[in-house]
Amino acid sequence: MWGTHDLNFYQISQIKRVRVVRRADGYYAQFCVDIERNIKHEYTGKIIGIDLGLEFFYTDSDGLQVENPRRLRKSEKRLKRLHKRVSRRKKGGSNRKKAINKMARKHLQVSRQRKDFAVKTASTLIQSNDLIAYENLQVRNMVRNHKLAKSISDASWSMFVEWVEYFAKLHKIVTVAVPPQYTSQDCSGCGERVQKTLSQRTHQCLKCGTNLHRYHNAAKNILVKGLEVLGQKKSTDGQSETSNAWGENHLSLVEGNFGWLSGLVEPGNSRGDSWESPAIFGTPLFAAGGCQAVLKIQKVEAGTRLPLLR
Ligand SMILES: [Zn+2]
Predict the structure, then answer these.
(1) CB atoms within 10 A of CB 5
(2) What is the tens place of the pLDDT at every residue in 29-69?
(3) Strand pairing of 211-213 and 202-204?
(4) How many angstroms separate the alpha carbon of residue 218 from the centre of ligand 1?
(5) Angle, nearest 10°, between helix axes 70-88 and 94-127?
(6) CA 185 to CA 187: how far, in whole Å?
(7) Is the confidence at residue 290, as pLDDT, over 90?
């Protein structure tokens, strides 16, 4: 047996659920373990907006760009070729079966690489910031060009966001999903709407002279929108007056006056009461019963008797 954690580390009473999962490359036993994870977030005084994209995995409001890993891009290309091969094979034939299995294994590899990247990137992001604003992807997919929003990227982005939310909860820091409308068009310097086509790489504002990479400009807008969303939340909570108009107010917030954020919202965007980590294979598994647990997985050979399933 091998796995991401050593199962012997836990008491049997801590294991709340076991699932047997079949994958293209074998059977797995998944253990839901009831443990509390206490992480102390080292406050950094940094708040950030991120713009998820195709060209770069994300660009943040400081202008930092995180690339899609080459390894993952390569695998995705290979996966596409394997898809084509399956469709060329005769239906019902043994060659098609083989091709399907090969494709399924590649799928698995890609989703594992994607997960690996999502976990590491999300963890780094959470550790180095106290507030993260990002675009609401569900809404975004409706407003953005569908041809460009490849399903592959959608999968990577959603997985990444799940992990960001997960780590934010653990670190007890704030995340906010903002409406994506006009984040790439509006000027982050003055709010002027500067129309641009998808091929235009830079944002140039004639009104205030702001000149930024288009994603950098978008990320700045996302951060401001995030603070506005939180500000609205705050004023509807009746704690104090905050102007949400596009203007000077949010700029002072960006300057670092965000002590008021603490206690304003639940850490992370709550999507349920469960504290489980996003699933091992990509899709989140929010369990009923809300046990504070991490999911772990161990590969088992066919015919192995699981000691815990006796
Ligand atoms: Zn401007």
Answers:
(1) 13
(2) 777 777 777 788 989 999 999 999 888 899 999 999 999 88
(3) antiparallel
(4) 13
(5) 160
(6) 7
(7) no
